[in-house]
Design brief:
The protein is of the alpha+beta class. Helices cover 68% and strands 8% of the residues. The longest helix has 38 residues. The chain is elongated and about 95 Å long. The N and C termini lie far apart (86 Å).
């Protein structure tokens, strides 16, 4: 008895810590609903553990525990759903969990022996845990953390399922709460679930926090309008690419101010997104330098190949039509290409590419200029 109480109090402490941590991060971020659901799940788990440790078998205690157990796993499933970005709810499964919980409550109220009234409760908890398992299984990419989380949830579900036949086989018919509670099987079963429950919550918290960090890192490196790398992130990519040689392309949409003035900034933003998508289709590292200026990095590529890529983009951009732009108004872009030799400063390559881009604009726009080739590098429309 003393060991069970001690274990339950440890559970309560761990759940309380995880609940406070989840709630604190949730209110700090104000946007990560998965943390709110996890805080609710750990609160329910902590209260359930407290009841298990202090319970004396009263009806009110059992009714509260019957509600808290399935609720904790349903809230956990909602946390997983929010984390994975899944809108779909498994209403049939949720309905089954709620129905089994209601049956367990009804059996308790009418005075059915504990050995029988706990059976629908155990099944309800197993099904609620299965909700999270199914969602994690359907995730396209699974990390080691995902696999560990799935393993603990499966182990919890199995623990609940195993209790159902065990209560019927190991104990005499009509056994009460005190008899089952004092058994070695119950001690071992509660010890297993007492370890797996907080471990599952902790693993999910780690996954959520890791996802939040990754999201903020992506946002810090991403241009808000086009989704491409921003200037800082692209500069870092160029520094890394310069170590083994690369080619760089700077490009600029011609007369873009006229587009904004004639059609409005909303249309101008659409043009920027379309041009960014066209650049991204090349499969190379692409960044937005600011305004209507973009850049591509081609690691290990020659300037000849880079010029070919630039000219391909130029032709496609000029040939396409865009919503909001007059049919007879063809857009164009200018390109400057430069080589980054292994070990050379990336800044120098930027300067040479920028000079080539300036030359492309000065000599008529809608063309590609390779740094150092002068007029021979021109490709007119």
């Amino acid at each position: 008895m003393g060991t069970m109480v001690s274990l339950s109090m440890v559970q309560v402490g761990v759940f309380a810590f995880l609940a406070c941590l989840s709630a604190g991060i949730y209110f700090g971020l104000r946007s990560e609903s998965s943390l709110g659901w996890l805080a609710a799940a750990t609160c329910c788990g902590g209260l359930a553990a407290l009841l298990v440790g202090q319970a004396r078998g009263s009806l009110s205690e059992w009714l509260a525990l019957t509600l808290l157990g399935p609720a904790a796993y349903l809230f956990l499933a909602q946390s997983v759903r929010a984390l994975l970005g899944r809108r779909r709810q498994y209403w049939a499964l949720i309905g089954a969990v709620l129905s089994l919980t209601a049956i367990a409550l009804l059996l308790a109220v009418v005075g059915v022996h504990f050995q029988y009234q706990t059976l629908p409760f155990q099944l309800a908890c197993a099904l609620a845990a299965a909700d999270s398992i199914v969602r994690l299984t359907q995730a396209r990419q699974k990390t080691l953390l995902d696999l560990c989380l799935m393993a603990t949830l499966m182990a919890l579900a199995i623990t609940f399922v195993v209790r159902i036949p065990a209560y019927l086989i190991l104990f005499p018919p009509g056994s009460g709460y005190s008899v089952i509670r004092a058994s070695s099987f119950q001690h071992m079963s509660l010890a297993i679930s007492g370890f797996l429950g907080p471990t599952t919550a902790f693993l999910l918290l780690v996954k959520i926090v890791g996802s939040v960090i990754a999201t903020y890192r992506t946002r810090s490196e991403q241009d808000g309008l086009t989704g491409l790398l921003n200037r800082h992130a692209f500069d870092q990519a160029v520094v890394a690419g310069a170590r083994r040689g690369a080619a760089i392309i700077l490009c600029d949409i011609d007369h873009f101010k006229r587009v904004n003035d004639r059609y409005g900034h909303a249309v101008g933003d659409d043009v920027l997104r379309e041009f960014a998508a066209l650049l991204a289709q090349t499969g190379h590292c692409v960044g937005r330098m600011g305004g209507e200026e973009f850049a591509l990095l081609l690691p290990g590529s020659s300037v000849a190949n880079a010029a070919h890529v630039a000219d391909m983009v130029r032709l496609r951009f000029h040939a396409a039509s865009y919503p909001g732009i007059a049919p007879d108004h063809r857009l164009s872009a200018s390109f400057g290409v430069a080589e980054i030799s292994p070990g050379t400063a990336a800044k120098d390559a930027f300067i040479r590419a920028d000079t080539a881009l300036y030359q492309a604009k000065e000599t008529g726009r809608d063309r590609v200029v390779v740094a150092g080739e002068g007029a021979q590098g021109l490709r007119a429309a």
